[in-house]
Specification:
Layout (H helix, E strand, L loop, with lengths): L1 H10 L4 E2 L5 E5 L6 E5 L3 E2 L7 E4 L18 H12 L2 H10 L6 H13 L4 H18 L4 H16 L12 E4 L4 E4 L1 E6 L6 H14 L4 E5 L5 H13 L4 E4 L6 H15 L3 E5 L7 H16 L4 E9 L4 H14 L3 E5 L9 H9 L3 E5 L7 E3 L2 H9 L1
Parallel strand pairs: 8-11, 8-12, 9-10, 9-11, 12-13, 13-14
Antiparallel strand pairs: 1-4, 2-3, 5-10, 6-7, 14-15
Helix pairs in contact: 2-13, 3-4, 4-5, 5-6, 6-13, 7-8, 9-10, 10-11, 11-12
């Protein structure tokens, strides 16, 4: 019934959202040129609302920034963690280097892991593995202890997980749709975790990787969200599809963004969404509807969940809700440069069974990087 209602409401011409005629200007890195066009009409499933497309190309070309290269960003996190003397790595190394490890020492190690939000199950696994290796190998030298701990932490973080972002355009050859479609990224998370800011940084990361990008401002319940995206997009020449009416139907804005991305031939369409967990039922309905509407036109390549790494177990509660709602494919951890809670990487991956794909390294516009397990563990250990 939901699908039928969506189809009818999306298809009714009298409810279409009418574009205001503001031009799109997508800088295609594949073709090297700008192609202005009008934003296409999009359906509204609640009430008619005019939609607009912010056009950063209207600014002088000299104002468009060049993002920092994607390569080497994770190295900055490793250096920050090492300089700070990571509490997690430093405490574990200090205990393991003692001449004789008592039961109290092993309990201290487990407590350190729990305080770092590694989680009860993974913490117990790590302690058991360390006990066995220390007993068998009898390691006490600092270098040998560090290498042993590195090996076990890396196994917990799991370098075998596929952390690549799905950014390749999709070729469709079905009965209803034929041709190349943009990769669609749906970004979800609780308001206040840095979700919209993270999308702006993600756009910069994609541009740095020579991808053409379009943003959809489907968080229509927070007035500042669309303005934030427009500001971020304008800095790197990325257009933003938005509604000019607060509280407009999020699925309509998402649909319009996909339509605009298809017409302009962009590589990636990134859609922001609302994150009002105080109304779980409403959130489920909204995200489910967005997913159904987009999936009729193109497969959703990624559903990225943004979590604040400093929230610990509260973050895991949020993760469970969004995994239930949206079918999460990857995690983005913000504020991971706060070293005390680095274990959340392990805990959230275990909880959802999906990898951490991106990490926020700080407040700078280019402080977002693809997650590298080895660089992360090395940073924790100093």
């Amino acid at each position: 019934m939901n699908d039928l209602q969506d189809i009818l409401l999306v298809a009714v011409p009298s409810l279409a959202v009418v574009a205001t005629g503001v031009g799109l200007a997508v800088r295609s890195r594949r073709g090297g040129g700008a192609a202005p066009t009008d934003a296409p009409a999009a359906p509204s499933t609640d009430a008619p609302a005019a939609a607009t497309t912010d056009a950063p190309a209207a600014e002088p070309a000299s104002t468009v920034e060049t993002p920092a290269p994607a390569a080497g960003r994770m190295v900055r996190l490793r250096e920050r963690l090492a300089r700070s003397g990571s509490p997690l790595g430093a405490r574990l190394l200090a205990v393991l280097s003692r001449d004789h490890l008592s039961e109290a020492d092993w309990e201290e190690i487990e407590e350190t892991l729990l305080l770092a939000d590694v989680g009860a199950g993974p913490s117990a696994e790590l302690v058991d593995a360390l006990r066995e290796r220390v007993r068998v190998l009898g390691v006490r030298e600092p270098a040998a202890v560090r290498e042993l701990l590195r090996e076990q932490l890396l196994a917990l973080v799991d370098p075998t997980m596929d952390r690549a972002l799905a950014t390749e355009p999709v070729m469709l050859a079905g009965d209803d749709e034929v041709g190349v479609q943009p990769a669609v990224m749906l970004v979800v998370g609780v308001n206040g975790t840095g979700k919209t800011t993270t999308i702006g940084k993600l756009a910069r990361l994609l541009v740095a990787e020579d991808r053409s990008v379009l943003l959809g401002a489907a968080d229509t319940f927070r007035a500042a969200a669309a303005d934030q995206l427009a500001t971020w997009g304008g800095r790197v020449g990325v257009p933003v599809v938005r509604s000019d009416k607060d509280g407009a139907d999020p699925a309509s804005v998402a649909f319009e963004a996909l339509q605009a991305g298809r017409e302009q031939g962009v590589d990636v369409v990134v859609v922001d969404t609302a994150g009002r967990l105080q109304n779980k039922a409403g959130l489920m309905d909204e995200l489910g509807k967005i997913g159904r509407v987009l999936a009729r036109k193109a497969p959703i390549s990624e559903v990225l969940l943004v979590l604040d790494a400093t929230t610990g177990q509260n973050g895991l509660t949020q993760a469970r809700v969004f995994a239930e709602v949206a079918g999460v494919t990857g995690i983005v951890l913000t504020k991971l440069d706060g070293t005390a809670k680095g274990g959340i990487v392990v805990a959230v991956q275990r909880e959802l069974g999906v990898p951490v794909k991106l990490v926020g390294l700080g407040e700078g516009p280019d402080d977002l990087a693809e997650f590298d397990p080895e660089a992360f563990v090395d940073g924790l250990l100093g």
